[in-house]
Structures are given as structure tokens and as C-alpha cells.
Design goal:
Blueprint lengths: L2 H18 L3 E5 L5 E3 L2 E2 L6 H7 L7 E4 L8 E5 L4 H7 L4 H7 L5 E4 L3 H9 L4 E3 L8 H10 L1 H5 L7 E3 L2 H8 L4 H24 L6 H14 L4 E2 L4 E4 L20 E6 L1 E3 L2 E2 L2 E6 L6 H20 L7 H17 L7 H6 L26 E2 L2 E2 L7 E4 L2 E3 L6 E5 L5 H11 L1 H14 L2 E5 L8 E3 L2 E6 L2 E4 L8 H8 L8
Parallel strand pairs: 1-7, 5-6, 7-8
Antiparallel strand pairs: 1-4, 2-3, 4-5, 9-12, 10-11, 11-14, 12-13, 15-16, 17-22, 18-21, 19-20, 22-23
The site of manganese (II) ion has 5 residues, from loops.
Length: about 475
């Protein structure tokens, strides 16, 4: 780690520790998970742990104990072991944890329980994020054990506080150094999408295009994908999280690619949809134009100070206008919005925070109010329309409702009970069965860019990824750089 990088982590820890007061914070690394026998899944560090430590080995725990005289930041790590390192690679060890990662002290991970007990006996607040199936039992045992210490007059923890919101608030706004890494992830991903447009042709399989996309990621220095690549041709584009990527592509298909790489622990997330044979058909073009117009409207609506919801509002209004125009909805624009009929074809949100994780952390609302956008925040803008390949008609209920009420109901009642109640309300409401024109069936289009909020507007980090119909068709006509 360079001294410049180390300074970044020191600054993050300073801000974190400031927020936890004299609590004792315990932050575990991601565990190594087995795929089968002695073979593991590729390891990827937990983002909160990495954000605070810069340490990317498994079997590690960071402890923050700001009220301690000497050991304020302690790393518990796998000790050096020449024999094991021959098999699984270099370990920093306790020496490296102090020398390279800036810990005040470091211990072998085996000593965690005993040291935690020593630290915790003096602290009344344990800062730990419950919900970690592997680590929770250890923490619960510790707290239970220390009840005896409390009875004998030690402070020992009586409160457990979730550090998630603190860390996630820090992760929500990009520093210039973080932004440089995220920009690079976006540029590499842009180049991969461009190559995919050149590379795809009827007769190839989806996984072959996937190979081209991921070749560009790796060859430009990205160590891993930010999420499993979605390479969805023809009707597969209507499956939102399609990752089989096994279909043979046919002449006349659209190909929806949702793929982004990770660079310097930052994610990119781009979706483009293009014709496998290089030319949009008239119905494909009609749907594509609606989605594109919605995406541009959503991007135009976002600016510093605007509430996050304006992005979704702009996208769904334009999508609904287009759907009404194409006769895919039975009522007019305002009624279709109030009754949320567009959800038949646009069933997801318009975006999400994007950072170290693809669906990144950070609250979308604060005190129930949609959050105001601030410089440094990065999010995706990704409207889409998906027309079921099989359904000849769709049923629309004539009932207005607020999405907020529905969300609140789900939170209060749980998903199953809320859904049951919703079904009862639908059964009571009048409904219209509306035909879906054959030419649109099986078309799925999504267009997704990554945007940064700047002091005076918005910066599209994935700009340059072909998006207009002309640019897409022109790129599809180019010769691929990779062999096929
Ligand atoms: Mn996305």
C-alpha cells in the first residue's frame, strides 16, 4: 500500500472513530466460502471492512477501541505460515498488519476471543452489525459471558449499536481519489459494451459475447466483474436477472447486456440493448425510443438539491406517455400513472446508489423524506420496458394507490400479508383486459448509465457508450477487435 493510499484509510478511520465515541467497534472481514471440497469461491472482501482497513485477506477482524491507551486500532489476521502460503499465497501476517496497514497492534486471529473479552470488559457499548450468520454467535457469547463482569462492577457492554449507518453515510459520497477509480471502472465497462456491439452476430451464443465483454474488463486491468454479467438475447431480455447466458442468438433478436466491472474496489453498472443483426426492426425501434427518451428525461431531472425521487418520476412519466401512445395501456397518461399501470411493463426502480458495491449502501430517504442529491453521490439511471413474450393480453385494475403506502404496508405487515391484502383489493376493483400487440411481445429494452452529482449538475460517468439509435447501429456495423 502506498503512503497516499494509507492516508485515505487513516482519514476514513478517523471519521468512523469520531462517530463511535468511546464504544468498542468490531468489524469482521468477509469469510472464505467453499465451492466444493477444498476449492473456494473467488474471495472478495466485504466493502465496509475494506473501506476502513484496505486489507483484502479473509479471516480477519478489525477492532476500533478509541478509548484505549495504546491499541486504538487493532487487526486480527492470519499469521504468516510458510507452508500454507505456498498453497494459498502471501499473507501480511501480524507484522504486515502493523507495518503496511497502519494498525496500532495486530494479533493472530486465534487470539480474537480472548482479546475482545479484555477490551469489552471496559466498554459499555459494543459497535457491531448484527446479521452476520458466521460471526454473530461469537459476539452473542461474548456479551453473555461478560454479564458476570458487569455484576462485579465493570462497565461491560449493555448496548449493541449498528455501525452500518455510520459507515454507509461515509461511503455515500465519493472523494476525488475514489472517484478516479470509479471513473476508470466506467470507462473500461464502456469499452466492453462497445466491443460487444461489434462482436455479437446471429448464430453466436450469449456466453461468447460474455467472453468478449469480460475479456475487455480483464485486459484493461479490472480484477473482477462488479456483478454477474447479464447477456440476455430475444425473450431472455424480459427476465430481469437472467444470468444463464446460454442461448444461441437469432437474426432479429435484441441483445440486452447489463454488465460492469470493478476497478479499485469501485463498481460500474451499464446496460445497453442493441439488435444482434445490427438493425432495429420498427417495433424494436419504437420501444427503444421510448426508453431512451425516458432515460434522458430522468438524467435531466437530477441535479444537486433535487430529491432522489424526481429521477423515477421523470422516467415513469415518459415511459407511460410512450406506452399510451403505442396502445399498450388501456387508459390515459395521468390515470395510468395514478393506477401504476406502467408497472406491467416497467416493474423495477429507475436506479440505485453505485459505489464499492453495485447496489450500494446508503439510505434513499432520511426521516421518511426522499434524500436531496449532493455533490459526490453516484447513482444509476436505468429505465426499461419488458413485454412478456407469452402473454396476449394484460389485466389492469382500475384502482388508484400510492406506492409509499404499499411500501409502508410491506414494512409493517411483511411481504406475504401485504401481498394478500393487495390481491383482495385487486379482486374488489374493476379491471380491464387489454390486448398486447403481437409485434411488441418478447421485446425487452433497458438503458443504464452511471451518473455523478457535481456542484453544478450531473456528470455522466459512462458517457461515450453508444446510446442513440444511430450510434448503436453504427457501432454494431464496425468490425470486432476480438476474434470470434
Ligand atoms: Mn443497475
Amino acid at each position: 500500500m502506498t503512503s497516499e493510499e494509507l492516508a485515505t484509510f487513516i482519514e476514513r478511520r478517523r471519521r468512523f472513530v469520531e462517530a463511535i465515541g468511546d464504544g468498542l467497534a468490531v468489524v469482521p472481514a468477509a469469510p472464505e466460502t467453499l465451492r466444493n471440497n477444498d476449492v473456494s469461491h473467488p474471495f472478495r472482501q466485504h466493502s465496509d471492512f475494506y473501506f476502513l482497513t484496505g486489507f483484502d485477506e479473509p479471516d480477519a477482524v478489525a477492532v476500533f477501541n478509541p478509548a484505549h491507551a495504546k491499541e486504538r486500532y487493532v487487526l486480527f489476521v492470519r499469521p504468516r505460515d510458510r507452508e500454507l502460503e505456498v498453497w494459498t499465497g502471501h499473507r501480511a501476517g501480524v507484522e504486515g498488519a502493523v507495518a503496511s496497514y497502519g494498525a496500532d497492534a495486530a494479533y493472530p486471529i486465534e487470539q480474537l476471543d480472548i482479546k475482545l473479552r479484555e477490551y469489552a470488559i471496559e466498554r459499555s457499548t459494543l459497535v457491531y452489525r448484527l446479521g452476520n450468520a458466521v460471526f454473530d454467535p461469537r459476539v452473542i457469547r461474548l456479551v453473555a459471558d461478560l454479564r458476570h463482569a458487569r455484576a462485579r462492577g465493570f462497565p461491560a457492554p449493555t448496548r449493541i449499536e449498528d455501525p452500518g449507518p455510520l459507515v454507509h453515510e461515509l461511503r455515500l459520497r465519493r472523494s476525488p481519489a475514489e472517484l478516479a477509480r470509479q471513473r476508470r471502472a466506467c470507462q473500461i465497462s464502456r469499452d466492453a459494451h462497445i466491443e460487444a456491439m461489434r462482436y455479437a452476430r446471429p448464430g453466436l451464443h450469449e456466453y461468447q459475447v460474455q467472453a468478449a465483454v469480460e475479456f475487455v474488463f480483464r485486459s484493461q486491468g479490472s480484477p473482477r466483474d462488479a456483478y454477474p454479467s447479464i447477456i440476455a438475447s430475444g425473450p431472455n431480455a424480459c427476465i430481469l436477472h437472467y444470468v444463464d447466458n446460454r442461448r444461441r442468438m437469432e437474426d432479429g433478436d435484441l441483445l440486452l447486456i447489463d454488465a460492469g466491472c470493478e476497478y479499485g474496489y469501485h463498481a460500474a453498472d451499464i446496460t445497453r440493448t442493441f439488435p444482434v443483426n445490427g438493425r432495429f426492426s420498427a417495433p424494436q425501434r419504437a420501444i427503444y425510443e421510448v426508453v431512451l427518451e425516458a432515460q434522458l428525461a430522468a438524467i435531466a431531472a437530477a441535479k444537486p438539491g433535487a430529491r432522489y425521487e424526481v429521477v423515477h418520476d421523470a422516467a415513469r412519466r415518459v415511459l407511460t406517455e410512450g406506452l399510451v401512445e403505442l396502445k399498450l395501456l388501456p387508459r390515459g397518461v395521468d390515470e395510468s400513472l395514478a393506477m401504476h399501470h406502467y408497472r406491467e411493463f416497467f416493474m423495477h426502480g429507475t436506479g440505485h446508489w453505485l459505489g464499492m458495491d453495485v447496489h450500494d449502501v446508503g439510505d434513499y430517504r432520511v426521516m421518511r423524506q426522499w434524500r436531496a442529491l449532493e455533490p459526490g453521490m453516484v447513482f444509476t439511471v436505468e429505465p426499461g420496458l419488458y413485454i412478456d413474450p407469452e402473454r396476449e393480453s394484460a389485466t389492469f385494475h382500475l384502482r388508484e394507490y400510492g406506492e409509499d403506502e404499499m411500501w409502508e404496508r410491506r414494512l409493517r405487515l411483511g411481504v406475504a400479508a401485504a401481498r394478500k391484502l393487495e390481491d383482495e383489493e385487486k379482486a374488489k376493483a374493476q379491471s380491464i383486459t387489454h390486448p398486447i400487440p403481437k409485434e411488441f411481445r418478447g421485446i425487452g429494452v433497458r438503458i443504464e448509465d452511471d451518473v455523478l452529482v457535481t456542484p453544478d449538475g450531473l456528470d455522466v460517468l459512462t458517457a461515450g457508450t453508444p446510446k442513440s439509435i444511430d450510434d448503436v447501429e453504427r457501432t454494431c456495423a464496425e468490425a470486432p477487435r476480438l476474434p470470434r
